[in-house]
Amino acid sequence: MSQSSLPLSYCTNLHPGLTVAQVERGLIDFTVPAGKQFGSPLAAGLWLAQPVIRELVAEPDRVRRFADRIGELGLCSYTLNAFPFGDFHSERVKENVYLPDWTQASRLEYSWDCSRVLAELIRTTMPNGTDGSLSTVPLGFKALANAADFESNCISNLIEFARRLARLESETGQVIRLAIEPEPCCVLETTAETVAFFGRLRDRAANENMLDSVNKYIGVCYDVCHQSVEFEDVAESIATLERESIRINKVHITCALQLTRPGENAAAREALAHFVEPRYLHQTFAKSATGVVRSVLDLTADLARTPPADFKNADCWRVHFHVPVNADRVGPLETTREDLKFALAAVHKLAYLPHLEVETYTWNVLPGADKPDLVTGLATELSATRTLLTQISNGGKSKS
Predict the structure, then answer these.
(1) Residue whose C-alpha is closest to residue 78's, from 32, 119, 31
(2) Does 176 fall in a domain?
(3) Does 86 have pLDDT greater than 60?
């Protein structure tokens, strides 16, 4: 069909913000000037951590005043990143970003508050009839999801959330959809796991007379770099979700790091060692020439410099480190930008319009002293994305 006609969104989770004032400061200092350089309408894909949401819902008119402020800044908002619950900029985030998981009432209530805030943001800053989306954790982190009733409790909370979203639409006319975001080493990481889970979710929903609501309000956030890191065929992955009627409510426009023939490229492995940092997980996957895929939970300098045989002899490595989406290379390292092109072309063929959001949250931890200033970097990513989307709309050709 076509990609969304909504303004392109940029996720603000790269800016620290545990108060409403801090969130607004990030918009003023970075999002607004990046939008001016971009030269096209820009949506703020807001990350509103739980303390910010709590502050917003504490007063009857606080959300309205915040929404008015977004409009005054010349921005709009139709999607929230409700994945990081707490401080996404603490010294060590790592696996804590998946907490609370979807077994916890706190995840349900936070998501519900986010949906009510988003409904007001859309009412204030978007045209009538605009749907909203909330991206969220892929149920939880695999290593922490050990309870026998883990999935059952997740399903219970997701069905309850769908019930609330149906009530929200009935009361306000506003459609908000949840977008579960598969990610490496999480409970939902592959397309196959996602499809299987949605089958079990729908079975339970049907038994509770909630199937229509679950199908309408619960879908996925397709983060392109996540499936690339898994060495999935992203076009086929998206086609599979379409065949299974699993709605892609949101697409994260992202690229990962790639290293081809690591055993023959010590210089690239040395460059990769400098991407090791203490804040975020950088799940690392290696694919052999025969198609066997190995993985480690987090990139380390030792892995990069002195990899074990199965990694050293691999055909290719991919690392979950979000890098600027305009870059085909970062020094001697490649990126998965070709996969991004394939994915967006596949999204273009869908019979509906997912939300599109650039989500490079790692600018503050990228190594090297030759990075552009943040505003210029953001504007360059946005402009490159606009060009790519235009080329796809024109059948792969640039406008003359």
Answers:
(1) 119
(2) yes
(3) yes
